[in-house]
Structures are given as C-alpha cells and as structure tokens.
C-alpha cells in the first residue's frame, strides 16, 4: 500500500509538473470570437464525429436571440419554452445549493477561491476558453483545491445561432485549452444564456457533453445585472428565492446562475453564499450533486481528481460517495441575458488546499511546483 501511494504521489507530481508550461495564445483562435471551422484542428475534430441526423432547425438570430414567434415545433428550446429535454436542471441532492460560476476565469476568480477555501465549499466553474488560455494557473488552482471544471464555450456566443460545425469548434477549442492546462477533458457544459435546443443538444452529445442549466429564473441571482440592478436589490431578491426554497420540501437541490467574471459579481457572491449558510443549505459542485465520481471524459492524461461527491454544509468536508449516472432534473426557464466576456491581461497564481493522507503532501508539493 505504501509503495502504491508513493507511486501515485510521484505520478501526480510529474503530471502537475508537465502542465506547468503556460498556454501559448498564439496557437488558439482569436479571443471572444467564434473560431473558424476551416482550421486544421477543427477539420480534424469534425472527422472524428458523425453529425448526420442532426435536427433540421433554423438558426436563430440575435445576441442573445429573440424567442421565435410562434414557437418552432419539436425544437425544445429551454430559454424560451422551458423545455429541458434531458438537460440537468436541478441538483439531485436534497437541500443542496449546486454551486456554479460562469464566464471565468478572471483576475477576480482568486478572491472567490479564497472564500470557498476558507469555508470548505466546492463549486463547478463553467469556463470560457477565451479566458482559460489567459489564466491557466487559475484552472490549475481550481482543480488543486477540489473544484470541478466544465465548459461554457470558447466565445460565449448563443449556440442556437451557430452552425453545427461552429458549435464543435467552440467546444473543442475550450476542451483543448483546459486539457493543456490541467490534463483533464471536460464532460459537463452550460450553454451561454441558457441558449439550447434539440439541434444543439445533438451536437453536444456527439462530443460527449452533458448540459447543465440552472433551476429557473428564481435561481438566477441576477448578479450580471449589476450595476443596473443594485447589489442590495440582488441580495433582497435572491433572499426571497432562498426563503421560498427552504419553506418547501427540499427533496431536490437547485443550481444557481452566478459569475466570477468581474469584481461586481464576485463581491455579491461573497454576500449571497452566507445566506445559504445561514439557512442551513448544503453546498456541492455539479459532480457532488450528481454523485459523479468520473466528472471528466475518458482520455484525460491527469489522474481523475477525487472530488467531493456529496453535499456538505459550510465548514465541513464533503462525504465521498460512489459514482452515479448524472440524472436530469425538473424543467426550468432561464433568463436570456448575461455578462460580457472580459479580455484580461494578467495571470493569477495557485495555492494549496488541505486534503487527507498522502495527498495533503501532494497538494503542498503541487503548490510549490505551480508557484
């Protein structure tokens, strides 16, 4: 057993050292733009999948797109129709806040990570590829501190406005960026603006992705509306949503819409999370909510992280549970707005997280390598 642990420790350190090199943005598409589909990389990715049989649904227009009137038959358009198909829209764990943050990483993400670490909370970060290539060390820190990474596309364009090939480019470039930084292949994704229909779902499934929406408008924190909406209004509105939730049966948890893209959204997150703690709501990442012990796709070169796979109250370690197939929750109806994407310049650093046994030593060594 000691030899096995020592070997695992060595493999972990070698893997972390291998991903120390910074990503070269020159090898990636232009940030915040839909990647071209005629690049050698995208041409190769398209040859790996069969998109024949995709639903023939007309592309939507707008940023974000307006709802079609009348609705398109058999489209199952979550943003406008509240049709979720088999998307995940509710945390499977009872009395649990499925903690998710979109649009990062940014220069403000480390502040949020500090808070989550202090309060022993795990979250899923739906990252934008255009931002990921600029902050690879933040991605590494998120993984090192027990958080879960997922995709939010390359450029944050509404997916129902893109061709099937463009959707592939958006997803695969983001996947490549995160893989280069961490050695992990993403498995879960959240569509920008919650903009998803059956055609988009078809392409995502071909790529091995599981869509995760949020649990309806009541659990959109509206942080992206600040400063048009005041911080006090955001807090008051979301407090009412939490009160309504805790007064109910709480048989399922919920996923919120929050962002780590600006100082405004991060600052309000630091005030919203204590509201859940005060109401004795548990917290978990998507991997924890869905009890998924394999929260990344096959083909990852880094060891599969041991993520907290059960909900836990603030300040307590999350219990570890066996893996389970992610389950779809109840249908939701989401907002069609969102924050703009930053184009940051500076990179953030990494730090350690306390874990048990030999991996505590590994985490400390990882922090030393990544510093």
From TrEMBL:
Annotated ranges, domain NodB homology: 95-284
Record's keyword annotation contains Cell membrane: no
Composition bias type Low complexity, residue spans: 308-328
Sample GO molecular function, one term: metal ion binding
Region named Disordered: 294-344
TM region positions: 349-370
InterPro entries reported for this sequence: Glyco_hydro/deAcase_b/a-brl, NODB_dom, Polysacc_deacetylase_ArnD
GO CC term (a single one): membrane
Entry's Gene Ontology BP terms: carbohydrate metabolic process; fungal-type cell wall biogenesis
UniProt keyword list: Hydrolase, Membrane, Metal-binding, Signal, Transmembrane, Transmembrane helix
Stored Pfam families: Polysacc_deac_1
Signal peptide range in chain numbering: 1-21
Domain of life: Eukaryota
Classification via PANTHER family: CHITIN DEACETYLASE 1-RELATED, GLYCOSYL TRANSFERASE-RELATED
Protein name stated in the entry: Chitin deacetylase
Organism, scientific name: Linnemannia gamsii
Highest classification ranks of the organism: Eukaryota, Fungi, Fungi incertae sedis, Mucoromycota, Mortierellomycotina
């Amino acid at each position: 057993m000691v030899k096995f642990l020592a070997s695992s420790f060595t493999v972990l350190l070698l893997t972390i050292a291998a991903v120390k090199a910074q990503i070269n943005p020159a090898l990636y598409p232009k940030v915040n733009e839909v990647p071209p589909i005629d690049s050698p990389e995208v041409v190769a990715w398209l040859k790996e999948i069969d998109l024949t049989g995709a639903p023939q649904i007309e592309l939507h227009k707008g940023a974000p797109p307006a709802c079609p009137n009348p609705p398109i038959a058999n489209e199952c358009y979550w943003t406008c129709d509240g049709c979720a198909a088999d998307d995940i829209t509710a945390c499977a764990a009872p009395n649990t806040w499925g903690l998710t943050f979109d649009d990062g990483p940014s220069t403000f993400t480390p502040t949020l990570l500090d808070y989550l670490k202090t309060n022993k909370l795990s979250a899923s970060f739906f990252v934008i590829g255009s931002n990921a290539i600029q902050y690879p060390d933040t991605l590494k820190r998120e993984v090192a501190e027990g958080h879960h990474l997922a995709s939010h596309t390359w450029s944050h364009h509404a997916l129902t406005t893109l061709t099937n090939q463009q959707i592939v480019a958006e997803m695969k470039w983001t996947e490549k960026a995160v893989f280069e930084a961490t050695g992990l292949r993403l498995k879960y994704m959240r569509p920008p603006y919650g903009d998803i229909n059956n055609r988009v779902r078809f392409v995502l499934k071909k790529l091995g992705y599981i869509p995760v929406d949020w649990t309806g408008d009541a659990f959109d924190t509206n942080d992206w509306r600040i400063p048009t909406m005041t911080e006090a209004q955001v807090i008051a509105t979301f407090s009412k949503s939490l009160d309504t939730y805790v007064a109910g049966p709480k048989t399922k948890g919920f996923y919120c819409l929050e962002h780590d893209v600006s100082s405004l959204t991060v600052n309000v997150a630091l005030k919203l999370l204590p509201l859940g703690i005060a109401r004795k709501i548990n917290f978990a990442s998507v991997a924890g909510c869905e009890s998924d012990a394999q929260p990344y796709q096959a083909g990852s070169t880094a060891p599969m992280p041991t993520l907290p796979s059960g909900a836990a109250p603030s300040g307590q370690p999350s219990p570890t549970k066996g893996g389970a197939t992610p389950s779809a929750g109840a249908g939701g109806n989401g907002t069609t707005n969102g924050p703009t994407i930053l184009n940051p310049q500076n990179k953030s650093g990494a730090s350690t997280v306390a874990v048990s046994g030999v991996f505590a030593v590994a985490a400390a060594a990882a922090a030393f390598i990544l510093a």
